[in-house]
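Appendix B. Raw example, untouched.
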Amino acid sequence: MVVPELRPWRAAGPHVVRIADAVRPRLARAAETVRPRLARVAAAVGPRFARPGRPGSPQVPRVARPKTWQFTATAATAGLALAAGVVTAAGPWDSSGQRTAERDRAVTLEAARGTDHGGTRAHAGTPPRGPRAVPPAVSVLTGLGGTATTVKSAPGGKALGTVLDPLLKNPALGRRSAAVVDVATGERLYGTGSGDALTPASTTKIATAVAALSAMGADHRLTTRAVYEPDTGEVVLVGGGDPTLTARKEADGLASLRDLAERTAAALAKRGVREVTLSYDTTLYKGTTIHPIGVNPNLAAVTPLMVDEARTDGSTSGPAPRVADPAADAARKFGDLLKEHGVKATPPGPSKATTRASTLATVSSPPLAALVERMLTNSDNDLAEALARHTALATGEGADFAGAGAAITARLKHLGLPLKDAGIAIRDGSGLDRRDKLTAGLLTALLVKAGDPAHPELRPALTGLPVAGFTGTLAGRYTDGAAGVVRAKTGTLTGVNTLAGTVVDKDGRLLAFAFLANDTTAPTAAQSALDKAATALAACGCR
């Protein structure tokens, strides 16, 4: 099983307010401490955000003054966001519970055209009208250039050991592996069994995120098409591997099946066609559609055509009942929508679009940067498996489970990441496969690489990490600990508890950490032990 995911943001609002009230005094003290430093940083980085044609003039977004809880929650992420001096203007979350991603604030301050990832619906032949896909913000890790994270030297290994060893030796953790790295320098500060390959569970998604971004770029979108076969009068719905394709009336920035049907019907009307044979094409992927764990509420059958992740209960995240054949279900819904627009369609069946087919309409997903953030924040298994297959397609591997694992591994090697430790294996994109094996050393290296100024395209692998006490799979954790300071991907299977992410320590140093525990017998106790270790790291000067 996996950790239950975040409920809709509106339902979580009161929870955030309670946490904000709890941490406000400590954050106020912290703000007093860092205010002089931030003034110096703002002066240093101001030219970086100048408007074109106005050298040296700071570019400030015109937004409403934040409410108290927004300011408090934003301040809680101080180690990453305060250095840029821009996130405090609006807070790090949007209306759907996702963070707006600091990249939108620091890189496109003058182009904010909405708060939800992906903006409005994309239309065939025209640029998407939502927030433009931009390189993730360098400001997320401004300290790497010599400001907030380098005020004091990195923690010492012996001092870290004194703090972490007793916590990580908790019997609840079974077999364990741990590593802590200074993100600014890449220096290993602490390690215990960091080269031991253990089952990583959903922290595998960090590898999937880095590989996908590396292979396709942060601006890449997944496109679903409707095509017309002139010889047979057949309309074929061609799956493009976008599990976020939605049939809901409110698409909220996602690719809309309703939009696709409306524009398909309009294109058919121009041809004088009012009756068609309807088919669907799932040939983009190869191999079995069923994950090695079998039929499971944590993910649907892996197919390039599905609507709303094949959920039958109206949910948007977490375990849910799924339709048995997502592609056929999507095609049936598409046919029903065509009928609403005056096009009679036969019951759909599987087919393959030919090269003679002409495109009637297309819809595209939000950019890959937003998809990666959603995958990490919500621990979205369907999206993880889709991105793994697209990584395979982008690198010439087969679009099946084996090809996806091989493609992710190849991209990590291409990035120079450490894969020499014995036993490392990537079998899927989600981490649900217990045969996946990663090391704490590799997970921290992935996080450091995502913060490398030479690879800004990888930044969503950091900005998508859940925020302790506020978002995603960490929303209900750290309520009395390092809320807002720890950002980490969780991992939970039976007998497996893992946590990997970033933390800002007491001295403002940005650290990457990975804690893996296998053979755990008390999942709640194991999870608590990992949270205590991350909290101790956040509170540590450790010199």
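End of appendix B.
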